[in-house]
Write a structure and sequence with these properties.
This protein is α+β, with helices and mostly antiparallel strands. Helices cover about 40% and strands about 25% of the residues. α1 links the parallel β1 and β2. It is globular, with a radius of gyration of 20 Å.
Length: about 290
């Protein structure tokens, strides 16, 4: 049985982001229960009342999908839904989903062997980025701009993975960015803040030293976020956009289902935790009122 409005915050560890969410929930008069993996046994066995809603902030992709799926089966509303988390955790799935639904996205090909990597990179005219289908912070991402760099990548990869167990990988066209990309935080269906991540390096991750600057949410940014959420469903996302220096248009690079926000908030000033808490408070109370009615 679903209890009166309580939010379950599923975590791996209480980072500054999750601590900010706990405080924001309390500021909006939402009871919050913090649960690590071992705490979920009582929840899924229903020895305690089920929460009105669960927010999934597990660091492990596998744990996030597992927890979200189990709670959803029990009838708990989860943010984000397991289907959305699964897609966001796999860059290859994102490429397939975006292509199917017409969301602008860099040309991408799956490769299941070294020969397929060679073929896919050659098809881009040796302007390619090769990346693992799962990962964050730019780890394992390589830019291949000629045959020598391609063979060097294959040689290094074969020495660590001779059996090819780490396939598939994703081969994407390299987009010439104007020195930055964009991270847009989406709450529900609405973008609440957009930041440029500026760097002289072709990888513009903040963990690699990129500078952060708040920018306006333009109609183009809002449209791309709307089209992305239309595919994934309402939730809490970090949508990464690339501006193509050649065409001037933007594309959706990828979407993060567990975005960090406290460090960048010190610069852009938007209370992301408060925005999410307000959205969830309205959702939980509306659903509780419907059940009571």
């Amino acid at each position: 049985m679903i209890s009166e409005p309580e939010v379950l915050l599923s975590i791996t560890m209480l980072r500054p982001d999750e601590a900010a969410l706990v405080q924001a929930f309390r500021d909006h008069d939402l009871p919050v229960r913090i649960a690590r993996n071992e705490d979920l046994a009582e929840v899924v066995s229903q020895r305690t009342g089920l929460p009105g809603l669960a927010v999934i902030r597990n660091l492990s992709h596998r744990d996030a999908v597992s927890v979200a799926r189990r709670l959803e089966i029990l009838g708990v509303r989860v943010v984000n839904r397991p289907s959305a988390i699964e897609v966001c955790n796999d860059k290859g799935l994102q490429a397939l989903v975006f292509d199917r639904h017409g969301v602008p996205h860099p040309l991408s090909r799956h490769a299941f062997s070294y020969e397929q990597v060679r073929s896919a990179v050659a098809d881009t005219g040796y302007r390619a980025v090769v990346k693992p289908i799962s990962g964050s912070w730019g780890r394992g991402v390589s830019r291949l701009l000629d045959a020598d760099s391609l063979e060097a990548w294959i040689g290094g990869r074969e020495s660590a993975d001779a059996a090819g167990k780490l396939f598939p990988v994703l081969v994407q066209e390299y987009i010439d960015k104007p020195g930055y990309d964009l991270r847009v935080i989406v709450v529900g269906r609405s973008p609440v803040v957009a930041i440029q991540r500026i760097s002289d390096h072709w990888r513009t991750n903040t963990h690699l030293g990129a500078e952060v600057k708040r920018v306006d949410i333009t109609p183009e940014i809002a449209d791309l976020c709307d089209r992305t959420v239309a595919v994934l469903g309402a939730g809490f996302y970090g949508v990464d956009l690339l501006a193509d220096r050649t065409t001037g248009h933007m594309k959706v690079l990828e979407v993060n289902a567990n975005p960090e926000f406290t460090r960048s908030a010190l610069i852009h000033g938007v209370d992301v935790a408060g925005q999410l808490a307000a959205y969830l408070a309205g959702r939980v109370r509306a659903e509780s009122a419907a059940i009571a009615g």
